[in-house]
Amino acid sequence: MATETQRTPAAVKTVSGYSIPGEGSSVLISVVTVVALLLLWWVATHFGWIKDLFLPTPERIAGAFVSAMKGDIQGGKALPEHFMWSMIRVFSAFLLAVATAVPIGVAMGVSRAMRGVFDPPIEFYRPLPPLAYLPLIVIWFGIDETAKIILIYLACFAPLAMAARAGVKSVTIEQINAAYSMGASKWQVIWHVIVPAALPEILTGMRIAIGFGWTTLVAAEMVAATEGLGQMVLNASNFLRTDIVIMGIIVIGVVAYLFDLLMRRIEQWLVPWKGRV
Fold first, then answer.
1. How many structural domains are present in the chain?
2. pLDDT tens digit string along 205-246?
3. If you placed Cys at 49, which of 44, 79, 211, 269 could pair as Cys (CB 3.0 to 4.6 Å)?
4. Residue 174: other Cβ atoms inside 10 A
5. DSSP 16
6. Domain residues for 204?
7. Does 249 reside within a domain?
8. Distance in angstroms (rounded) separating the CA atoms of residues 67 and 73
């Protein structure tokens, strides 16, 4: 007699009695969706449904990309230079946030005292938009790269700390007691039990944090920047160069999406048990 596994399609996996589509079917749907959106964009612009000022044709966006690569845009700087500076700002702030927010989040999860110290300021500034405290950062740190990195750092810090704290809460008391019964110290329990159990939430927090980092990039590069993707987009908007604006948005979105795919692969490698029964 055929088993349930034999009758289940390869693109579908069963978890707790529910059928969940696999990666293959999801990728196919994503590809079809992207192609359909591009086709709709082409039709809407070529048939004049939307004015060129508001949404240029895909060909104009491609032309803007070529011009930006050569540096034939406002400011005279080429796209690779803008890209390099944005990457330095975003990932410097992101790595600094990972190095500080994750330990603080874990400490908040295991210590009431640490939770009492860090919870009020994090919960206070977390809902604030970066533009709200941007003037204060400029007053405190000036208009050089430090202010830009700190602004992006603050945007990344809160979701990472909250994710690490939530991950600690996912650890069961049975796991902790089992480690103590085998003679583990408090620090060994934290490092070998709590941190691995919290890792799925931490990695999810990293994916969310880098998204906030790219979102804050434009605000950060408003501060006396002469290079960067955000600055390029802002400068192009002043001259109503919608093609360059959309091209810059696409570049930022593609880079952020590729990093998210990389984080998913790292997540599958570090926590292969996540989502499995």
1. 1
2. 999 998 899 888 888 887 777 888 888 888 888 888 899 999
3. 44
4. 8
5. T
6. 58-270
7. yes
8. 7
